[in-house]
TrEMBL record:
<dbReference type="Pfam" id="PF00593">
    <property type="entry name" value="TonB_dep_Rec_b-barrel"/>
</dbReference>
<dbReference type="InterPro" id="IPR012910">
    <property type="entry name" value="Plug_dom"/>
</dbReference>
<feature type="signal peptide">
    <location>
        <begin position="1"/>
        <end position="30"/>
    </location>
</feature>
<keyword id="KW-0472">Membrane</keyword>
<keyword id="KW-1134">Transmembrane beta strand</keyword>
<dbReference type="GO" id="GO:0015889">
    <property type="term" value="P:cobalamin transport"/>
</dbReference>
<keyword id="KW-0998">Cell outer membrane</keyword>
<feature type="domain" description="TonB-dependent receptor-like beta-barrel">
    <location>
        <begin position="258"/>
        <end position="628"/>
    </location>
</feature>
<keyword id="KW-0813">Transport</keyword>
<dbReference type="GO" id="GO:0009279">
    <property type="term" value="C:cell outer membrane"/>
</dbReference>
<feature type="domain" description="TonB-dependent receptor plug">
    <location>
        <begin position="65"/>
        <end position="172"/>
    </location>
</feature>
<keyword id="KW-0798">TonB box</keyword>
<dbReference type="InterPro" id="IPR039426">
    <property type="entry name" value="TonB-dep_rcpt-like"/>
</dbReference>
<keyword id="KW-0732">Signal</keyword>
<dbReference type="InterPro" id="IPR000531">
    <property type="entry name" value="Beta-barrel_TonB"/>
</dbReference>
<comment type="similarity">
    <text>Belongs to the TonB-dependent receptor family.</text>
</comment>
<dbReference type="InterPro" id="IPR037066">
    <property type="entry name" value="Plug_dom_sf"/>
</dbReference>
Length: 655
């Protein structure tokens, strides 16, 4: 469906200009009768849960009922009770997402949101942009991200560059780590199970006087997961199972110097090694050896918060992110491997302010300067970007809400880009029906690799004249409470993409050019129930249709149908049971080395169960079963997913 930016902007301006005339109404919280996502039951508790608050949607804590954006929030309580140890496993249950992982934990992991490319997702950890400048397409690899130190995960769907700038063409995934509070507390857990899995972690946190602190460590090892399908093995070549070793440490410190000044500091380091069956060339012929993929990530952020007067909050921040990747293989004991190392770095200085202009009217504004660099064999380049944004968050009445933002980015390489997003929400009186929607744009600048990296041996050369990829998207939906324990909803979405970067082949060379066009549209629907104070459940269905408008073909690795079902039950005060079902319909993919560019993957269904028993105030026993029915599946094609697996362990706390 064609759209013009001019007509879209006229509609946005009309809506934005009409809003201020109605901004005298006081700010109010709309009542939510059922949690939008199945969460840990809390008895008869009626207060708004953390799963009903979003920070990613607007930049400040906001009830999800007061923004039209489509957002899913996963809290640490939910992840712990489900015993979800890795971020890819957590994201599988989110509607609108397809998580693609080359094997088990540690295998390269990509996330597709609403049919967009995997590199069209903006990823942040504690406000630090972690899209990897060391990779050819600046996509973030989710494989080494563990959950032990996470407080919440927010998945924001649809173009979001109006607030977040570059890379937010398809959506934003934001991770927030845990902050220390209260008396000093120590926790630790040990877990073991199938495929030689050993998992340990711990955390020390608390606050003392003006200081608060949280330090988390986690180590996940998986020693014997079969990843290569047997049909790909040549005669006489043994199967080599994948080996994963992921270690991470996370620190979050704070100091409340006065009523008006606070300092924050975040440090996160992770180191992962992944060994898989070595590739013997093209077409894919596995060798009896393995390849090594080693990654190290270092993230740091410092903040100073200043509130000179009530209602006026300022944050001054500085980020540093480093991504160091090494590939070596095949690890043949009779030959020395030739390692390939790539380093990517990003620094950012930023300012954000928010001021309460009137009751129910919040104005956010800010500016950023970001520089990124890539260093590898034959390439050492950098690029920078300066951006500024403004956002109005308004409670027009106690039932009508509006969030609107606009942003301009000036890139050192290609010039300027202006983006926007508008997300209204309205709750009908009487029926309490919530109407919501959003419209926005996104852009993704070409990566340093796409601009400058040459492969003369293959006659491939970078293209410094590339332009940014662009998107225009909208969605609209309705949510309807049915009594006090049932909530149903549905949202239609559509996103158009232009100037997509693709490889073009000429008689004597090849290079990247802006020729791609695509569209993705579909619907997300859900039913959320809280049958009793001890049992809640939610089922989501996502239908996604994608089309490459140049080749007139369906895009790869975008299942048309996805169903996710989650349930949490507390039959006894000390016992909590959970169940999760993930079902993907068939999708188009290529084989492992893409010598067959298009084939049909039949899809799969997974069922996971978990049990948590609070033995005492300091001891919790837990166990889980993943892939209960031992479903044999590949996502992506050519890489086996884990079969039936059983795990168990114990968690200890100091009080």
């Amino acid at each position: 469906m064609p759209h013009t930016l001019g007509s879209a902007l006229r509609s946005v301006l009309a809506l934005t200009c009409a809003g201020p005339a109605l901004l005298a109404a006081p700010f109010a919280h709309a009542q939510q009768v059922a949690a939008p996502f199945a969460d840990v039951p809390r008895g008869g508790e009626t207060a708004v849960s953390l799963a009903e608050i979003s920070v990613a949607a607007t930049g400040v804590p906001t009830p999800v009922t007061q923004t039209g954006s489509s957002v899913t929030v996963l809290t640490s309580d939910r992840l712990e009770v489900q015993q979800v140890r890795t971020v890819p496993d957590a994201l599988q249950q989110v509607p609108g997402l397809n998580v693609v992982r080359t094997g088990g934990a540690g295998g390269q992991t990509s996330v597709f949101i609403r049919g967009t490319n995997s590199n069209h997702v903006k990823v942040q950890i504690d406000g630090i942009d972690v899209n990897d400048p060391s990779t050819p397409n600046r996509a973030f690899d989710f494989s080494q991200l563990l959950t032990e130190d996470l407080s919440r995960i927010e998945v924001l769907r649809g173009p979001q560059s109006g607030l977040y700038g570059a890379d937010a063409i398809g959506g934003v995934i934001s991770f927030v780590t845990k902050r220390g509070e209260g008396p000093a507390r120590a926790t630790a857990f040990v877990e073991g199970g199938s495929y030689g899995t050993a998992n340990q972690g711990g955390r020390i946190s608390g606050s003392e006087g003006i200081f608060d602190y949280s330090v988390s460590v986690q180590h996940l090892r998986q020693a014997a997961l079969p990843v290569t399908p047997f049909e790909l093995l040549p005669v006489g070549v043994p199967l080599r199972t994948a080996f994963t070793d992921i270690r991470s440490v996370s620190t979050k410190l704070g100091a409340q110097l006065s009523d008006t000044v606070r300092l924050n500091y975040v440090l996160r380091f992770s180191d992962s090694a992944y060994l898989d069956q070595a590739d013997g060339g093209f077409p894919y012929r596995p060798l009896p050896y393995r390849n090594l993929n080693d990654q190290q990530q270092l993230l740091m952020r410092g903040e100073a918060e200043w509130t000179p007067v009530p209602g006026f909050h300022n944050v001054f921040g500085a980020n540093y992110a480093s991504f160091d990747r090494l590939f070596a293989g095949p690890l043949d004991p009779l030959a020395s491997p030739t390692p390939t190392s790539t380093l990517g770095e990003r620094t950012r200085l930023d300012y954000r302010g928010d001021v309460q202009m009137a009751p129910g009217n919040l104005l956010l504004f800010g500016a950023q300067r970001e520089d990124e660099r890539i260093e590898t064999t034959g390439l050492n380049r950098q690029n920078g970007n300066t951006g500024g944004f403004a956002e109005l968050q308004s409670a027009i009445t106690d039932r009508a809400f509006l969030v609107a933002n606009i942003r301009h980015d000036a890139n050192d390489q290609f010039g300027g880009a202006t983006t926007f997003r508008v997300a209204p929400s309205y709750i009908l009186p009487g029926t309490e029906t919530r109407l919501k929607g959003s419209v926005g744009t996104g852009f993704k600048p070409p990566t340093l690799s796409q601009l400058y990296q040459d492969y003369p041996g293959f006659r491939f050369f970078g293209n410094p004249n590339l332009r940014p990829e662009e998107s225009f998207g909208f969605d609209g939906g309705v949510e309807q409470p049915l009594g006090e324990r049932v909530l149903v909803g549905a949202t239609y979405f559509e996103t158009d993409f232009r100037n997509l970067i693709q490889t073009a082949y000429f008689p004597t060379f090849s290079t990247n050019v802006n020729v791609g066009r695509a569209v993705a549209y579909g619907a997300e629907s859900f039913v959320s129930v809280r049958l009793t104070d001890s049992f809640s459940a939610r089922v989501d269905y996502t239908n996604t249709v994608t089309k490459d408008e140049v080749a007139n073909q369906e895009l790869l690795r975008r299942p048309r149908h996805k169903v996710s079902l989650t349930g949490i039950w507390t039959p006894l005060p000390n016992l909590t049971l959970t169940g999760t079902l993930i079902s993907l319909g068939s999708f188009v993919d290529g084989n492992r080395d893409f010598s067959i560019t298009r084939l049909k993957n039949p899809g799969f269904t997974l069922v996971n169960l978990s049990a948590n028993y609070v033995w005492s105030e300091t001891t919790t026993l837990f166990a889980r079963v993943d892939n209960l029915f031992d479903q044999r599946y590949q996502n992506p094609t050519g890489f086996l997913g884990a079969g039936l697996a059983v795990y168990g362990g114990v968690r200890l706390t100091s009080f």
